[in-house]
Amino acid sequence: MTRTLSIHPRYYRWHVDPGIDWTEANTGYDTLDWEIRMDRVALVSLDVWDGHYLRETRDRIHAITAGRISPLLKVARDTGLSIVHAPGPQVALQHPNWVRMIDAGEVDWPVHDAWPPKDFVDRTGPYANFGYPVEPRQPELEVRRKARKFHPLAEPVGDEPVVANGEELHRYCKANEFLFLIYFGFNTNYCIVLNDYGTVHMSNRGYTVMLLRDCTTGMESFETLPRLGQTRTIIQHLEMSQRFTLTAPELIGALRE
Q: What is the DSSP letter of 112?
């Protein structure tokens, strides 16, 4: 018998009930009641690395990974929920569990077309002045990027698959018939929404995506740090754009039923 999960994904409802004034102030959150086949679900661990160059972001990542992600992974493994690790190509290609469903020419996906010109994309030659400014500590950041590795509390266990990019995640999901992708990881306002293996791109491929909103954090600015405004805004943006969110306790409860 195929096991199912009873979950209640949250979204932001732009609509109002009949008789209610259709204004922004009258819109709000709502939830759905879903019963989904567990063998169609993959829990996606996205860019859960062992550190970050921003101290506050790093501290939040460590706290969330220890307090929420690690317990969730244990329950997911105990109950047989499929876990897929998406740590970016720098980490994935070095890991023994890399699924190798792409070749070397597909790592930087999609392959660059003839337009815009390559020197424009790279901001070289006649376009060198139009690039993002080079910061004095950029070499230090590059060293940190090359040294990235899995957070010790979120490393793949056993033969759990590791994928390098969105095309490989798609091929793996197709091979295993996954339809629902439940995400956790970092950073909310960058990799979660911008990476080709993140929520937006995979949603655009046709998958139903859900973000565990208590298992993520963004990089905050001096203006948004007090209320974690960047993190909150991106979570709400996903809920406003036909994507969904859950919490780790909700998913753990569904897995334990």
A: P
Tokens linked to 132: 């993002």
> What's the CA gap between 50 and 74, in Å, rounded?
18
Check whether 86 has a pLDDT greater than 90: yes
pLDDT reading at 105 higher than 90: no
The strand pairing partners of 184, in sequence order, are: 45
Residue 5 DSSP one-character state = E
Sorted by where each starts, the structural domains of the chain and their CATH numbers stand as 4-103+149-256 (3.40.50.850)
How do strand 10-13 and strand 28-31 relate by DSSP bridges?
antiparallel
74's tokens: 């244990």
* Ramachandran area for residue 22 (φ above 0: left; ψ -120 to 50: alpha; else beta): beta
With beta carbons less than 8 A apart as the criterion, state whether 58 and 52 touch.
yes
For the stretch 233-255, pLDDT in tens is 999 999 999 999 999 999 999 99
Which pLDDT score is estimated for 2?
87
From 204, 174, 190, select the one nearest 99 (Cα to Cα).
174
Strands 10-13 and 41-46: unpaired
120-to-112, 117, 135 alpha-carbon distances in Å: 12, 5, 20
Rounded-to-integer distance, Cα 70 and Cα 154, Å: 6
Q: With contact defined as beta carbons under 8 Å apart, do 14 and 3 qualify? A: no
Cα(first)–Cα(last) distance of the chain, in Å? 15
Distance between CA atoms of residues 80 and 255, nearest Å? 9
Quote the DSSP letter at residue 134. Answer: P
Instruction: Of 196, 197, 228, give the one whose Cα is nearest residue 213.
Output: 228
Residue type, 231: T
